[in-house]
Amino acid sequence: MINAQLKEELIAYSETIGIDKIGFASADPFTTLKERLIKQKELGFQSGFEESDIEKRVNPEFTLPKAQTIISIAVAYPSKMKNAPKGTKEERRGIFCRASWGTDYHVVLRDRLSKIEQFILEKVPGAKTVSMVDTGALSDRAVAERAGIGWSAKNCAIITPEFGSYVYLGNLLTTVGFEPDTPITDQCGSCTKCIDACPTGALVQAGQLNAQKCISFITQTKDFVKDEYRKKIGNRLYGCDTCQQVCPVNKGVDFHNHPELEPDPEIAKPKLLPLLTISNREFKEKFGHISGSWRGKKPIQRNAILALAHFKDTNAFPTLRDLMVKDPRPVIRGTAAWAIGKIGAEDGAIWLKAAKDREEDEQVLAEIAKGLNLLENQDLEDRKVKTK
User: Fold this and answer.
1) C-beta separation of 101 from 263 below 8 A
2) Interatomic CA distance for residues 156 and 182, integer angstroms
3) β-strand 21-26 against 167-174: which pairing, if any?
4) Pick from 83, 85, 17, 29: which is nearest to 57 by CA?
5) Which residue has the higher pLDDT, 208 or 94?
6) Phi, psi at residue 106, to the nearest 5°?
7) Do residues 54 and 37 lie in contact, with contact meaning Cβ atoms separated by under 8 Å?
8) How many angstroms separate the CA atoms of 253 and 161, rounded?
9) Would you place residue 134 in the very low, low, confident or very high pLDDT band (cuts 50, 70, 90)?
């Protein structure tokens, strides 16, 4: 075990390189986590983005043989946007979740972790290290909980006493032994606000998430969004902050410690209509530096169409009609067709029927049928109102 002095030096150093909190945990297997992950898999609650091998997720030695310590770091990000633009009836806007404001957190945290690695290697020649941010095998949340960064909350986030849940997490495994920190006792108590507020009921119970129903996950998928979730997405383009926003611990929490994490209002809350015709190059230039761009422009464009339907934005009709007819991607054509019906274009039925005659994709044809059905139901409602 390395003496306490090196640990204190590392903690002091971490403060100088933009790390808001650092904790130390043993590299023992996460046996309790293993049981939870097996249950999640059996229930079909996984997102598919995580490491599929459960043994790798719970045993640090699979990532770094002879690992003794896992260092967990937390970097706080803002919860409020300065000079946030307001959408208007003429120019509706979407929103990226707070975790996608500013520079991609993977880039930011990897920079911090690489500096920690260099610090350790200079102090302990021959030491081994492996760092990871979000995409590694280990569970960031389980590591942060063990390392005393915060407690694992009912909304499946780590809540820190200092910064609430508005923190990015990163891990570093090392063969160097450090005295582990003490985990923080759960402080959620009887509060269930996050569970009650979840738009889709994805928070099945305290600490258990059905990722397949989570709006954050749904906004990142590339296929058609299931009918029951389309309205619930609202104007979200990427991610969802509801369970964080309603958390009492997060009330009044807003840290602006890192300039690179500050949002550009026109990127974090962009106009919707321009997104529908943005080129690949333009998308990369404008959004490529944020974490919300990692799945490419198609999910963002699909979500923008859903948002325009949510607002019943009639200004979108010409663009939606063009997408329905000309776009090479079935998901975009079909979602545009559904949106035309949802908004209720005066000539919508003509457009949809014309598209139906040309369309060959079965899924798109199904969406055109949904759009026509929505228009028909709207006509019936209008006639009922007129006869009253």
Assistant:
1) yes
2) 20
3) unpaired
4) 29
5) 94
6) -60, -45
7) yes
8) 10
9) confident
Considering only the C-alpha atoms of the chain, give the largest distance between any 2 of them, rounded to a whole number of Å: 85
Cβ-based neighbours of 264, under 8 Å, separated by 6 or more: 102
Q: What percent of the chain has pLDDT over 70?
A: 96
Pair of tokens at residue 61: 């030695």
**Alpha-carbon gap, residue 293 to 105, rounded angstroms:** 12
In a domain, 226, yes or no: no
Q: Which residues pair with 24 in a beta bridge?
A: 71
Token pair in block for residue 41: 């898999």
Q: Which of 45-59, 142-156, 193-207 has the lowest mean pLDDT?
A: 45-59
Based on the number of CB atoms within 10 Å of its own CB, is 203 exposed (0-12), middle (13-18) or buried (19 or more)? Answer: buried
The answer to whether 163 and 255 are in contact (CB under 8 A) is: yes
**Residue 1 reports pLDDT greater than 70:** no
Q: Residue 382: pLDDT above 80?
A: no
Mean pLDDT of the chain: 93
Within a domain: residue 381? no
* One-letter amino acid for residue 134 of the chain: D
Tokens read off for 296: 């490419």
Report the relative pairing of strands 236-238 and 95-96 from DSSP bridges.
parallel
Residue type, 119: F
Domain membership flag for residue 239: no
The one-letter amino acid code at 258 reads H
* Residues counted in the chain: 388
Which sequence positions are flagged as catalytic?
Answer: 134
Of 258, 2, 261, 17, whose CA–CA distance to 116 is shortest? 17
- pTM of the full structure: 0.92
* Number of compact structural domains in the chain: 1
Between residues 53 and 192, the one the model is more confident about: 192
DSSP string over 197-260: H-TT--EEETTEE-GGG-HHHHTT--SPPPHHHHHHHTTEEE---HHHHT-GGGTT------GG
Which domain range does residue 146 map to?
4-88+98-174
Strands (E), the chain: 21-26, 69-76, 95-96, 129-132, 151-152, 158-159, 167-174, 203-205, 208-209, 236-238
242 inside domain? no
As given in the structure block, the two tokens for residue 345 are 């274009």
Checking if the pLDDT of 385 tops 60, the result is no
Structure tokens at 84: 């946030």
CB 331 within 8 A of CB 222: yes
